[in-house]
Amino acid sequence: MKPGAVCRLVGLFMGLLSQLGMAQSSYVWQGNQLKTRADSLYVAGNKPLAEQHYRQLVRYYEQHQDAARTAKALTDLAVLQLAKREYPYGIRLLRRSLARLAGPASPDSTRFRAYSYLGLFFKRMGRFDSCQIYYDRATELLDHTHTRQNSGTLISYYTNQGVWEIDRGDYRQAELFLQKAHALLAAEPGFNRRIIDQNRAFVYLQTGRYAQALASFDEALRTATSADYLVIANKALCLLKLNRLSEARATMQQSMTAYRAVCAHTKGYTDSYFLAIHYRDLGAYYHKKRLFTTAIRQFRQSLAVADPTNRAGRSEAWRFMGQTLQEQGKVDQAVNCFQQAIHWAHPSFRNPDPYTNPAKTQTWLARELFRALTAKAGALAQLGLLRADHRALDASFDTYLRAIDLAEQMRRSYQTDWGRLFFTETAFDTYLKALEVTQQLYRQTGQPRYREALFTIAEQSRAATLTSLVREAGLKLRTLPTQERTAERALLDQLSGLQSSLGYETDSLKRRQTEQLLNETELAHSRLLTRFEHDYPAYYQLKYAPTAVSTATVQRWLPDTNTLLLSYTLLSNQLLMQAIDKGRVSIHTVPVDGRFFALVRQFRGALGTSPGGRQYAGHKAAMALYTYLIAPLRDELRGKQRLLILRDGVLNLLPFEVLAPKTGTYLLQTHTISYGYSAHWLLLMANHHPTTTDRLAMAPFNEPVGEAGTYRAATLAVLPHSGSEVAGVRGDVLLGAAATRTAFLENYASKRLIHLATHAITDDREPLRSRVAFFPDQPAHLLSTEAIYNLNLQQTSLVVLSACETGAGKLQQGEGVLSLARAFNYAGARAVLTTLWNAHDEASAFLLTRFQQHLDKGAATDEALWQAKLDFLKSDLAPRYDHPYFWANFVLIGPAEVIETPPRRWLWGLLGTLGVGGLGWGVRQYHTRNRTRSRSAMGIG
């Protein structure tokens, strides 16, 4: 072919390519124009016309066989169906979208958006199993792909995840998701932030932070384009919770006015969800006004308008109506209402007989089912007591057991500690009422199953969050690969550092940035825990397996016949005491009233207040409390020297060692005493076996700190005896300027025993603000409770906290005292030697020096503490410090054990020297013998 012809062909080909590119560019440009127009109409509120444009966009991209853009347009069209409540149609559109994304090169961003909205659509339809599947797929895409997601899509995803967690009752997890969504708003200024503000307000409402809730509802209304009747309705509910009834009623009317305005503007508009909660809240208002007939009428109206898919709303309305009937004295009718509430919360359970319960309590509406079961159990108990009806009492017992089983599953499903703690506190009353019904049945029948249930329920009611978290830590070691545990450890270390830095950061901008990073890290940790459940079936199965501890298990665990476990549980008007030894289980109850609690306060005040030269004035209260707490158990105590005590409520603040059968005596003189959060927790910790023998002791304030900067914490006084206190610890001993927070964090993880002779700063109202002080070489010299929670103390048998009030803190129902000591136990320490009130420097030094000496002689930890206290009472210090204030504050929490003593450093040095010398002598002898043998062979004499 001639060169000219070739050039003409090339030119023609390039022209065709150019035209094709222009056509492609024109087609994309036209599609973008259609998309922009549709989006503008949607934002302007003209949703019908916007929908027409989105349909046109779908057809346009289908004509051009552009699968990716068709999928995106189908997703946009599906989102419009949310407002119209056309959920099945929206699901079909999203599935069509996913079908277009079947190719390997399809964009993950569109798939992520489709999965997210499929989860939301299924949730709105009440199909929670499908909802969870698609939310999980969206989360997996987010975690495992590097595709950049649109900010608006991420905001919607995190908001919807937050709402999902609200429905589950994990309010801390919900708050984390909503905070993440809020942080992304800066990248999407046009996003409707009202939805986020409203849901954050709802979290505050459900967790009792009513002032924050009202402020957030008002903020949501300020950012709304028009009066939002749902936000106003939720604000009314908040006012109702605060018993501001007239304001609540006026706000309800305001929400109905706003709703009717929307109906007038949009032909055929109705919102059954709003109407259901409006009439429900009206019923609650009239209930509070004690206008019961009117209240019931409103609840029935709520049921009449509620959509059948709104199972949670229907369950709640039936429960509210039952509570109103119960208050009217119509208990039979109330029980039937509660049975209806159970049915709506558990779709597969349809038996109308109130004496029956679901065989299994697994449901996506667990929170509503728990409330309905608890309400029915209470009503059946009322029937049983009113009519002396054993059948009703037994049905109440069975219903409480179902509720408690469900509560255990719910608690374990929450991935944040805060969420578990909050749930434990809110569910605590159910356990107490269950114990009272069980005690009544045991008193009437004497049947062993009720006696066993008393122990099991009491166990489940105490330290449930701490126990479950310790148990799960052990499960991870057994079921997760090393790299997964390492990944979690890295996140926990990061959380610990961020939480500590918040304690001293004063720059407002840096503080906000740290808080945001902290929230993101906590969210990453909770998502990692969720993935563990999905990816490792063995971990999931063991995590949710029944874990009730039996009395027989405890009896097998007790070390000998001289040991007695005592469990105390405070009920509404009686004290339940359970005693377990190797051979028997016994139960006692003692009536308690205001006088008992006054005695506890009086006794605690006499013990914990510095005497300042005054004589001990607590003998009378000690003897009175002895008659309540110890005297009923004198038969069980006979021949028992070691006591393991499980305390409850205000009893957590008492050292039982000081209880006295008569003036001038103490229980300490006849018994070794240690404490536990629960028997289950003691068993878990006893099965934890550290492999190291190393020890660490620190005394940051053994000498004056001096002047070295503005953050040298002049208020932290010198503790002159703390140096001698730790000097006898066989291990690494860090004094003064060497005892820094950094040194602790670098050395603690491999230590069997950790001894901190220092200052502590406790906060009873905000326990997470409590801190342990180290040498003030930097602003961050305090170790916070939150940071301690995330330490790794799996190798630690004992932490000695020789500081003020490390065992004191906020008393939380169902969990005990939220103290610094508990934080160390939470981090994995088997046992903690802690203080219930201020630690006196000289007395503490004597006690803990003797404690270490007895420990090194082979005494178990509880016996070593017992001997140290007896030594103190016989010492030269006793006349000067003749008051339990100086010695009774130290208590041991955790299983007793003999802690192996490491060899002394000088002995290792001597052995090393002898070893090296011996090795050198052996080498010389070897060569000498070899030379001799060689010379003989050569004939040299």
TrEMBL record:
Pfam families: CHAT, TPR_8
Signal peptide boundaries: 1-23
Coiled coil (residue ranges): none
Name listed for the protein in its UniProt record: TPR repeat-containing protein
Residues covered by the CHAT domain: 620-894
TPR repeats: 315-348
Domain of life: Bacteria
InterPro entries: CHAT_dom, TPR-like_helical_dom_sf, TPR_rpt
Transmembrane segments: 906-923
PANTHER family: RAPSYN-RELATED (PTHR10098), TETRATRICOPEPTIDE REPEAT PROTEIN 28 (PTHR10098:SF108)
Keyword tags: Membrane, Signal, TPR repeat, Transmembrane, Transmembrane helix
Keyword Transmembrane helix attributed: yes
Native species: Fibrella aestuarina BUZ 2
Record-linked SUPFAM superfamilies: TPR-like
